Amino acid sequence: MTKQFKICVLEGDGIGPEIMAEGIKVLQAVGAKHGAEFSFEKALIGGCAIDAAGDPLPAQTLDIARASDAVLLAAVGGPKWDTTDSTKPRPEQGLLRIRKELGLYTNLRPVQIFSALAGASTLRPEVIEGVDIAIVRELTGGLYFGERHRYYDEPGAGTGGAPGQRAVDTLEYREYEVERIARQAFEAARTRRSRVHSVDKANVLDTSRMWREVVHRVHDEDYADVELIDMLVDNTAMQLVNDPRQFDVVVTENMFGDILSDEAAQITGSLGMLASASMGDGVSLFEPSHGSAPDIAGRGIANPLAQILSCGMMLQYALGMPQAAADITRAITEVLDEGWRTGDIKDASTPADKIVGTAAMGDLVVGHL
After folding, report:
1. Helix, strand or coil, per DSSP, at residue 269
2. For the whole model, what pTM was predicted?
3. Which of 83, 209, 260, 291 is most enclosed, with most CB atoms within 10 A?
4. How far apart are CA 71 and CA 320, in angstroms?
5. Residue 260 CA: distances (Å) to CA of 88, 200, 291, 320
């Protein structure tokens, strides 16, 4: 019996439409192989939504997302919409809002090494060999969702210095938010190597002190079989490039996770190779970890593999098709092992006739499926 799934497609901005086309191409091939039928409904988010509707996340987009089995996103943003004026909409606001509206409090970003791309990393091969990290990031709390204000001091206000503009961002977490993300991390660790690094800044921040207390309570009550290691965020940043193999599951708050997961991308050699899943209690969202790359948009040279890997994560975590997800990873591995590269992952030894564009890379993956 053919399985039928409805997918909300958010192409977004920049290279988004180009890489999304390859993801859909691969999903159609997977469906034909595994007896699944996908229907794709496109909706607007980000800069293109601002241009069309004056809102980075129109109500219609949310309606389509909620009525779908999963949401597949490409990328948002670009210099066209960059502004420091807080009264004007920004593409990234659409991304933050859809996470909040869909209750996507967990972001899972796997960091794995494709052996064929070991030379693309700026770290030595012996440092990154065997790296397999799952970064579990809390996604709907912290600075990105706290109250924020910008205002000017009245003349004579305060002590010392001249009056001027002030800005305040509020870092806030509630106990239940920390507990639920901690449980996600411990559950993930049980399926892997049973080690969790909990990353915070408990030597400075009260939110981090609470974070550490709650994580330890959850661990001691229900997950004592999992090794728990506390690590300050600045040390974690150093250890990721010094000895990344020590990490199995890394769990941390929103902003720390945003920064550390992008740093971890360099271990793989390119953000163009990292997928991510944003999950909660309802419809999940899957997207590549890179940005919209407006400087190369429309040129047909963007790397679609992170988008395709995001499709694989969707199959595994949202649609109950783990074998189809494994097939995608296998196909990509075989393509890379044959020496095929997009521009961002080539090196000095890559033959010119092995450097391909966006659509050709998608075709190669489909061929290996």
Report:
1. coil
2. 0.87
3. 260
4. 15
5. 29, 12, 16, 29
